[in-house]
Amino acid sequence: xxxxxxxxxxxxxxxxxxxxxxxxxxxxxxxxGAACLVIISSEAxxxxxxxxxxxxxxxxxxxxxxxxxxxxxxxxGCQYRAVIAVxxxxxxKAIEKRLAEVMSR
Length: 105
Prior knowledge:
The chain has 105 residues and is of the alpha+beta class.
C-alpha cells in the first residue's frame, strides 16, 4: 500500500508540472539545481545507475532506487522511464518520507 502512495505522489507532481522525466531532462534539472529528489528505476542499467548516483552525490541531491521502468513511466505520464527528478521541495519531502517507510521494511 505504501508503494502506491509513492507512485501516486509522483503522479501528483507530474500533474503539477514538477517532474523532469528521462535521462536528459533529469540531468539538466540536477545540474541546474532545480531537482530536489531523483528516483532511479531498479531496472535501470548499471551505467545509468552509476551516472545518476554519482551526479546526485556531487550536486547533493537525494537519489533512490525504486520501482520498475514501467511503474515510473506510468506515474510520470510516459510509457517507460528509467529516471525522474522531482522539482518541488514539498513534494520531494513527501515522496522521500514515503520512500524511507518502504526502505525500512
